[in-house]
Structures are given as structure tokens and as C-alpha cells.
Amino acid sequence: MFTASGAFYDELYASKDYQGEASAILALLEKRRQRPVDSLLDVGCGTGNHLVELARHLRVEGVDLDGRLLRFARAKVPKARFSEADMCTLHLNRRFDAITCLFGSIAYVRTLERMAQTLERFAAHLRVGGLVVLQPWYRSAERCPSLQVRHIDLAHVKIARLSHTLVDGREALVKVNYLVGTASGIEHVEERHELGIFSHDEHLEGLDAAGFEATLAIDALGPGVDLYIGTLRDPGNQSS
Fold this sequence. Notes:
The chain is an alpha/beta fold. The chain is 24% helix and 35% strand.
């Protein structure tokens, strides 16, 4: 996934307001909680930027499939526990009060079957009444931009990121090219991202099947950045 860009991932997203997003997530958890929220697992935590802020308020852990990104996360939040694992087969043998899966990371599961498996694993790692906060990727093929360009202009590095997306049904292949300029020269690197496109209804149906009462919080992290938030039902109080 981030095999090419892991070394400069934080520079790519230097303008992202992680502190503001973490504050919005904490407020959402406080509003929706049915039980005290003291512990949180961030699935697809990347380099740990959300956890830097969340760790000021909660006991946090992080999971990511990319060990290179986790090295940065461990350095930023040294008191947190991090695990290199696939969210589809997650098995940590402990439960949390809340789970976050942000930045469209759920799309990397690619298929509805794997999304169902992932949401079941989230439920298995939550206490009854616990909360899941899920940020979707694009929810229709029409929303996927075919061509995007971004420029990063920092004192120590200049980056041009050009991506092209090919959509085939519910799957998207994103090919990304980077030009990275530093004092030592200019480097060209490439990477591929294979993602799934899941509709609004498919997100809600998947969460419901995994045992969550879920709703969509519109613009929760800013204009156009929605979050699904679900509360894990008590299996002993399921309606027939």
C-alpha cells in the first residue's frame, strides 16, 4: 500500500488537522456513549497522528498492516501498544470501549465479504455498549475522481503527487506517482492502492449485521467528511 510513500507520509498530510479531528471524535464519543469511554483502538492507525491527540484523553492502542508506518507511530506515542495485523482477521484477545477506523481505511478490505469479516472483528474487540467510528471512502463510483494532483511545499521537501483511478464495478485501482525533491536530489516513486467502493446502505447493513446500531454523522470531521458511528448491541437483548 504505502510501500513508496511511507518515508514521507507525514509530509504528504502535514496540512491535515489531526488535532481538530481528534477533538471532534472525542466529542462524538462523549455524545453517543452508553458507558464510560476510557480505552480506544485505532485500526488503520498509520503513523499515529490521531493517536497523539487521543492519547491525551484515553488509553489508546493502534493497529496497522504496514509495519513501516507503525515504526513512526511507536516513536510518537511510546506508551501505546501497537500491533501489525490485518483488520479482517484481527485477534488481540482484549476489548475496548471504542474503535476508530479513519481516513477511508475500511476501503482496503476491497469486498463486502471482507468488510463483514472486519466489522465482526471490530465487534469482537468491543465491550457491550462500545462504539465504533468508521470513516468511509468514496461511496459510489461516480464520486471517485479519475485524476488528482497535490503539491506539498515544505522547507525540507517538495512533493508532487499525481494519482489516476480506474474503477471496475465496486473495485478501484489507484495508481500514484510521486516526485520527491530534497537537497540530495529528485526521486520518482510509484505505488498502487486497491480499494473497494461500498454504498451508504452497504455500510449500514454491514454494521447492523455485525451487531451495531449505527447512524451517519454528516460533516463530522468537516465539510463532506462524514462518519458512521455505531453502538454495539447487547446480544442478550436482541429483538426477534
